[in-house]
Amino acid sequence: MLLPTLMRQNHRLADPVEQLRLLEESGQPPFARTLGRTGRAPLRADSIQVLQVNVGKLCNQTCRHCHVDAGPERREVMTRETMALCLDVLIRAGIPTLDITGGAPELNPHFRWFVAEARGLGRHVLDRCNLTILLAAGHEDLPEFLAAHRVEIVASLPCYLAENTDSQRGNGVFEKSIAALRRLNALGYGRPESELILTLVHNPLGPSLPSPQPTLEAAYHRELADRFGISFNRLYTITNMPISRFLEDLVRAGRHEEYLAKLVAAYNAEAVAGLMCRTTLSVGWDGRLYDCDFNQMLELDLSPGLPRNIRDFDAVALSRRPIVTAQHCYGCTAGSGSGCQGAVVSAP
Question: Which CATH class is domain 5-333?
Fold first, then answer.
């Protein structure tokens, strides 16, 4: 088994270059070659329908599967000036959706200003929420703020069972998440008669692919309603990406090669057309541009010759840009496919 020096010395596998090297040396065919073999190359963007903005890596949780490596000790936080540049891009390029992520994006001191400004522009706004932040001191009125601005909440809930959720996200997280969901339901989120959209997100425990999204969604609806009286609109299933903390866990267990082989074996060429990178542009906390949030965490810049920062945004060049790929991209094309909008095709 190929163990990186950092892990042998019991240091965290934090270097993106080391992560990429580890994946490349796993013995699996390069993702770009697989795209070509299945007639899906070259991979290019179709448009920019979503501007996904990571407003910082500061978070009130430290989840085992987090590909952002977010936590309470992180200090990377987007400035208001960079947010203003993102708003200007929404206007100039006519991008309809602003997808705000983190960390816990709500911990950015300019989060509420950013949301209000984007909603004032008539944009659909998504908040990638970990739920427990809605109960944190100083943030108790966040549910009312989000409801008042008609923000779609995309909330992580790995499982409808406490033991499974807490093992991935920390002790007591499930109980707090249920309390937060009840507050959101009380405001109308997730109710069939309401326009307030509540989307839940499932990702598997350990090195396995998610079950079919429709099957899991039905189970979540049934179990959350029966056990807690909670309702929601839809469920997204997202494959755990073999980067950052999840890759660390795999390496410690000696299963990183096994997991990547599983993703490669489950490659589904039909999923390529629906990849989120084809309609999404990712913006880092410092304004740097990437093809997707996963490339951002691996510091994989856009293709040569393209703008590198939101201040240099070029709608024509970026809307049809070639997508930069690496071995982690198998995670988005395995099985039913995966991305920030959940499964992209019906179960193969």
Answer: alpha beta
* Phi and psi angles of residue 297, each rounded to the nearest 5 degrees, phi first: -70, -25
Q: Where are the domains of the chain?
A: 5-333
Beta-carbon contacts of residue 116 (< 8 Å; ≥ 6 apart): 149
8 A C-beta contact, residue 182 and residue 230: yes
* Residue 42, preceding peptide bond in cis (omega within 30° of 0): yes
Give the integer Cα–Cα distance in Å for 69 and 56: 11
Q: Alpha-carbon distance 57 to 40, whole Å?
A: 33
Residue 14 near residue 250, CB atoms below 8 Å: no
Sheet harboring 124-129: ordered strands across?
234-237, 198-202, 152-156, 124-129, 97-101, 50-54, 280-283, 289-290
The string of pLDDT tens digits covering residues 189-241 is 999 999 999 999 998 888 899 999 999 999 999 999 999 999 999 999 999 99
pLDDT digits (tens, 9 = 90+) for 63-111: 556 666 666 677 788 999 999 999 999 999 999 999 999 888 999 999 9
Q: What is the pTM of this model?
A: 0.93
Residue type at 147 in one-letter notation = A
